[in-house]
Design goal:
Structural class of chain A: mainly alpha
Shape of chain A: globular
Chains: A mainly alpha, B alpha/beta, C mainly alpha
Oligomer: heterotrimer
Largest interface: A-C, 43 and 46 residues
Radius of gyration of chain C: 19 Å
Strand order of the largest sheet of chain C: 1-2
Shape of chain C: globular
Distance between the termini of chain A: 16 Å
Distance between the termini of chain C: 40 Å
Strand content of chain C: under 5%
Strand content of chain A: under 5%
Helix content of chain A: over 70%
Number of helices of chain C: 11
Structural class of chain C: mainly alpha
């Protein structure tokens, strides 16, 4: 129990700090940055579950996010579903889509996993673009309903409400991830990553593991997507694009593939970094170049064992 | 005067695993030497290091007066130090003649391509018969011939053969022994790695026993009258 | 009947395009075992450079195409040197190079956006006018492409079978170590493969720039199509890749006829996923 407590010290301290941030950051924009950072943190840490922890070459992770975005937007706006429910439905829809894609992917190897998961994302984007009646096509959807709690509407108070919801989601997602990783299931996932043939010979069904891990990693990612749609009140096909993908991927890599807290920290750092870059004139597009270069540098400077002995910018106590 | 080929204190391995620990051996002009010893003790690693496929962590390798310790594989082949590797996997989907022609890749070997091809087919008539077949359709013995043939196409000035008769029938072994003998008689010095001591003794002038990544014994055939003693030595030592 | 012929001809045009694109990917895959995510972006750069040389500098279309091909080839070699070579022998080379080439793609797309801007551009056609094939009408430029594609593929094939350089690429792809032992300079072979593949991409882009709009993101859709092709055909052999390319071209044309333009991409992906369920190595199988 003592050891576990020590591991929790730093994250809890971070959480405490984040909880009081709004008292110091009172402008809407700063809070907005934190909210976006929290969303990316959820995406990145959940991506780590499949990519880093389990070693599945999943390049369709952002699709789960996009599915969550559109599911929530459509439910809330077109069908008048309560936004809270819509957000949760985003998670459900994402999990369902994960199940759909996982089935064919489960038995594939190597490059085909990359190609198929990637193509899956393209598929989703094509679907969204072509069904413009439902999804708004290339223009996307706007004026998605916002969150309310009784009489309190969350667009008041410079996004204070949204801040805490986002933070709450991040906390829930992290607890979930830590629980999964430390469960017997989570440990068997690691075994599959490290020595697939050996794990298979010990009776672990590799394909079933893969399906499960993809579905699990999709849940909170979809919820984050749902929240994104409700918070920003828009849904656009850009969520399926390379910009979002590369940003999230760089957070996973820089934060440390194979760790949960690493990508979270990287998400915070990179969101602020890229936003401040966007402020500089001429850097709105160039910041993606910076991100891409950062990704390459991280890959270059981590000698051998990308998915394992990475050199995360996070102290060892947080390496889970 | 420097020796034709010399290794001094070479250590090498794979990542954190050290396989060779300060190996030293040499070859005088006109000699053929043999390397033997238990499996997995570094003979193949040594050959790979000489060919530049593995970086040595210490020591020196000199060929015909030139320091090739840090030379890259294409340079080493171009200088005439050629290896016919173990396992004869080679290029399964390519045809025998294609592979042989391609093997005259280095600048030095290219002018002699046609002549060398003819010699290889003369030495190994079976390869001639199968010249348009894909390498993966060849039998074990034929693949070994192909591997040696490729090495010959590189116009070697020093030829290293890594267990050329591994897994072959006695008859094939004899065939290959004859061919290797012809190569040596043709003026190409050999470094021959083999498990079969008799085989080595027939074809080489000196032997080195390699165990645990080191040279533990040097045996000069001319001065060692009793090859039974050598056998005992080998088996006796291998019993550890 | 008329529609069917028009569809088949359209399929031929698409197939030619896909064959050109996918063959470049195949060269890199069979030689290095790397999937180059920047392949589409190389195509795009080829188109832009061709446009700059041909239109902005007014040096003529052929010069433009040559420049487009050459510039893509150079960038391809740079990508190999900086983003692929450092990871040779790495246990996770496949995954890492997927990510580094993905990063390269983003860098190239955003750079193109900054350099050339987002406004649509277009190259003039090689030949103006239209031709009629069995009653179906296509532009003369597309007709040129239909003829050019098999020629280029044939040339590529012969290169790998007859020339020493081409054979060295095959050898390196099949057994890197043995290739080194017969004197082949493996890093040079890799650079050659990448340069050749990129040149093909640049050439394709330059040709495509006449019948489609040139934009920084024009390479994304061809890349995805090329992916589908290599998944169908397996990545192993040039012949399988070419065959799959034409097959996909025809299927796509037929799908457009049957389910309409909007549903076609979706159906193609679905088809691809179904194929993979039953043949995890692609329809023609091949090297993993």
């Amino acid at each position: 129990m003592n050891l576990a407590a020590k591991h929790l010290l730093l994250p809890l301290a971070a959480l405490a700090i984040l909880a009081v941030v709004p008292y110091f950051a009172i402008e809407s924009f700063t809070r907005h940055l934190f909210i976006i950072a929290f969303i990316y943190a959820i995406i990145a840490s959940n991506w780590n579950l499949s990519l880093g922890h389990c070693g599945v070459f999943n390049f369709g992770h952002l699709t789960f996010f996009g599915v969550g975005v559109y599911a929530a937007a459509i439910l809330a706006k077109t069908y008048g579903v309560n936004p809270w429910l819509a957000i949760i439905s985003g998670g459900a829809a994402a999990a369902a889509s994960a199940f759909l894609i996982a089935a064919p992917v489960a038995r594939l190897k190597g490059i085909y996993v990359v190609l198929v998961t990637f193509a899956f994302g393209q598929l989703a984007m094509q679907l969204v673009l072509s069904q413009s009646g439902i999804t708004g096509g290339a223009q996307g959807m706007v004026r998605v309903p916002y969150l309310r709690l009784g009489d309190y509407s969350f667009i008041r108070d410079y996004k204070l409400g949204y801040y805490y919801v986002a933070l709450g989601l991040l906390v829930l997602s992290t607890i979930f991830l830590v629980a999964v990783i430390n469960s017997p299931f989570g440990k068997s996932l690691k075994a599959v990553r490290d020595a697939e043939d050996y794990a298979a010979s010990r009776g672990i069904s590799v394909s079933r593991q893969r399906i499960m891990v993809l579905v699990l990693s999709a849940i909170f990612t979809g919820v984050a997507g749902g929240f994104y749609a409700i918070y920003l009140r828009v849904a656009s096909p850009e969520v399926f694009g390379f910009g979002t993908l590369s940003l999230a991927l760089s957070m996973v890599l820089i934060g440390g593939a194979g760790t949960t807290y690493g990508p979270i920290a990287a998400a915070l750092a990179l969101t602020f970094a890229t936003e401040s870059l966007a402020g500089i004139r001429g850097f709105e597009e160039a910041r993606f170049i910076v991100i891409a270069v950062a990704m390459i540098l991280v890959l270059r400077l981590a000698p051998g064992g990308l998915l394992r002995l990475f050199e995360p910018l996070v102290p060892k106590s947080l390496r889970q | 005067m420097s020796r034709f080929f010399e290794i001094s204190g070479v250590s090498a391995g794979y990542g954190p695993i050290t396989v060779l620990r300060g190996v030293s051996l040499h070859l005088e002009a006109g000699e053929c030497i043999g390397l033997f010893g238990p499996n997995g003790h570094g003979k193949t690693t040594l050959l790979k290091t000489i060919s530049g496929l593995i970086r040595s962590t210490s020591g020196e390798i000199a060929f015909d007066g030139n320091d090739i310790t840090h030379a890259r594989p294409p340079e080493i082949v171009n200088s005439g130090l050629v290896q016919s590797p173990q396992g004869n996997v080679l290029f399964g989907d390519m045809r025998v003649q294609e592979i042989l022609e391609l093997s005259a890749f280095s600048k030095r070997a290219r002018p002699e391509r046609a002549a060398n091809l003819a010699s290889v087919f003369e030495l190994f008539p079976r390869l001639d018969e199968r010249r348009n077949q894909k390498a993966k359709t060849l039998s074990g013995g034929e693949r070994q011939m192909l591997s040696i043939g490729c090495a010959l196409m590189c116009a070697p000035r020093l030829l290293m053969l890594d267990e050329p008769t591994l897994g072959l029938s006695p008859k094939l072994k004899q065939e290959l022994a004859a061919a290797i003998g012809k190569i040596a008689e043709g003026g190409v010095p050999l470094i021959l790695v083999e498990q079969d001591i008799e085989f080595l003794m027939a074809l080489t002038d000196r032997l080195y026993l390699i165990e645990h990544g080191e040279v533990v014994r040097e045996i000069d055939r001319a001065n060692s009258p009793d090859h039974d003693e050598v056998m005992k030595l080998y088996f006796g030592e291998a019993m550890h | 009947m008329e529609t069917l012929i028009a569809t088949l001809v359209s399929g031929l045009v698409l197939g030619s395009l896909y064959a050109l694109m996918a063959s470049g990917l195949s060269v890199v895959w069979t030689t290095l075992g790397v999937f180059n995510f920047a392949h589409g972006a190389l195509m795009m750069i080829g188109a832009f450079v061709a446009w700059t040389v041909s239109e902005a500098l007014g040096l003529g279309l052929l010069t433009g195409i040559a420049a487009g091909t050459a510039s893509a080839a150079i960038i391809g070699v740079v990508i190999e040197r900086l983003l692929v070579r450092p990871f040779y022998g790495n246990r996770n080379m496949l995954l890492i190079t997927v990510m580094t080439t993905l990063a390269a793609m983003i860098i190239m797309e955003k750079s193109a956006l900054i350099i050339w801007g987002a406004r649509l551009k277009q190259l003039p056609r090689l030949i103006e006018g239209e031709v009629s094939i069995l009653g179906a009408t296509i532009s003369a430029h597309e007709a040129v492409m239909i003829m050019l594609a098999p020629l280029l593929l044939l040339a590529l094939w012969q290169f790998t079978v007859r020339s020493t350089a081409g054979r060295s690429l095959r050898a390196v792809g099949q057994n890197q170590e043995s290739a080194a032992l017969i004197g082949i300079d493996v890093p040079v072979a890799f650079a050659l493969a990448f340069g050749l593949s990129a040149a093909l991409a640049g050439l394709t882009g330059s040709l495509l720039g006449s019948i489609r709009f040139i934009t920084p993101v024009m390479g994304a859709e061809p890349l995805v199509k090329a992916m589908i092709v290599v998944i169908f055909g397996g990545l192993g052999s040039l012949g399988a890749t070419a065959g799959a390319a034409y097959l996909i071209g025809f299927i796509e044309a037929l799908l457009i006829l049957w389910v309409g333009l909007y549903w076609t991409p979706f159906m193609l992906f679905l088809l691809m996923i179904v194929v993979l369920v039953f043949r995890p190595n692609g329809i023609f199988g091949g090297k993993e």
